[in-house]
Amino acid sequence: MLAPAGILMVTFLLIPIALTFVLAFTNARLISPEPARFVGLDNFARLFDSSTFWSSLRNTIIFAVVIVPCQSAFALLLAILVNAKMRGVNFFRTVYFLPVVTSMVVVSMLWMFMYQPNGLVNVTLAKVGIAGPDWLGDPKTALFALIVMSAWQAVGFHMVIWLSGLQTIPGDLYEAASLDGANPWQQFAHVTWPGLRQTRTFILITITIAAFSLFTQVNIMTQGGPLDSTSTVVFMAVRTGFQQQQTGYAAAISLVFFVLVLAVNLVQRFLTRDKDPRK
Amino acid sequence: MSDHLAHVADASAAPAVRQAGTHDSRTAGVLTMTLRIVLCFVFGLPLVFMIVSSFKPDTQIFADLGGPAAFLPVGDLTMANYRGVFDRVPFATFLMNSVIISVLTVVLGIIVNSMAAFALSRLHFSGQKLVLGVILATLIVPFETLALPLLWWCNQLPWIDENGLSFSGWLDTYQVQIVPFVANAFSIFLYYQYFDSIPKELDEAATVDGAGWFRIYRSVVMPLAGPATATVAILTFLPAWNSYLWPLMAVQSETLRPAMVGIDYFKQLNVSWGQIMAYASIITVPVLALFVAFQRSFINSIASSGVKG
Q: For labelling alongside B96, which of A30, A162, A192, B3 has CA 20 to 30 A away?
């Protein structure tokens, strides 16, 4: 009974993982009459020489470094706001979650329109006397614009994860704390925050992986531009491996990306590891 | 784990904002309520804008931008954008493809992953722990790292069709959009956890009655695993319906493309924003409606994904 899933996972997960390591050292092309040839470290040499690669890597890292703390903090704020015992709280949860069920493709189209020089964002800013820039057309603002719309789309997902963490904290802990005279901030620092330790690790890791995988928004809204200011590692891999059909080179990019994700993941797990041996 | 998560969507007893009491806490209550309402606008209005604009000609959309009319169905309303969508591209085909692909991925995923989980939870064979360990380890590999090697690999795979064995590769087919996404480590894990919580005595009773493993799976365990199936269905459906990167690369024919890739192609035709909003609304509103109707299961499914770390 394990066989169907086993065969599928080996074919579409384990073999492609192994292939990444093999193809990265070849000149394989997506469609080619000639068999792939081993080329040693050529792909990597070319990659580390490419300025687009370094800007893609830099953009990916900036995107992750900004969005990971901002989005997780914002999601926690939302979770606390909708963790109240009151009528209509489900309504708020549902509305905050709506963008999550909307596909990133649709969200990208929608925000592309809102970010136009004469679009909804700038018209609204003009009402309060601010002249908005051409958000997606200016290298200085394009990545920031992507960060805002990405957080808007995904924050509801992490709100729900935080919420499930918040609800594992027993209510009597709060009662005890408030009997001891703890103010809301102290309650948060000494009851809520320590109670969310496991949830924190999970949120950190999932937002980071999602941030590193940034692709859809870039492909639809900016095509990596202007001046490579929004190109990302995955976007570059797709451009070379698919549009230019250079599978070997794209596999090298994927391999670098894979190592990066794995390294960041291990560091995060190490930093957030369970330091309490009793647990 | 599933015990406490099952109640996430219920109002909780945890840190409630104290409603009555001192003046201070009343001010705090009003402030948090205001914040909640403002955030509703932040998350809801862009979607309202999308739907409302889909009924307006472009001139009306731009004329309304400056005020609340942008979010209200007022002025010159028309169905022309919707008619335009169907006229410009084979939209019905795109939509049908999306439905076929997501439904098949969900149905096959439920069967294949629950069977695997049943084997891991109920049958005994050597290396069981190792298999489970490998499955869980693959959870941290983002699909994006594999997409390009997988694309090359799928182009090498054989397929059996009415003309016998074919070696032309899987690109530009339905199966390339379905088969690679059927087996899913997280679905197996969800089923595995759920099956473990179903008492083994039930299997034993069925064995005494002469049932084999497959009967136990089909008639005892699966009927009890409804909540796990709902979660797996939701968590498989959303990415299948919304998938973009993979069909963009693996499928070129208009007749096989799903709606998400279609909208991108539609955009390049330099059509009006009203038509883009109409296209976006048609592929979004059914999912939003499903979500609102099954809001509780959706949110619980997402919450249960929070345990995989």
A: A30
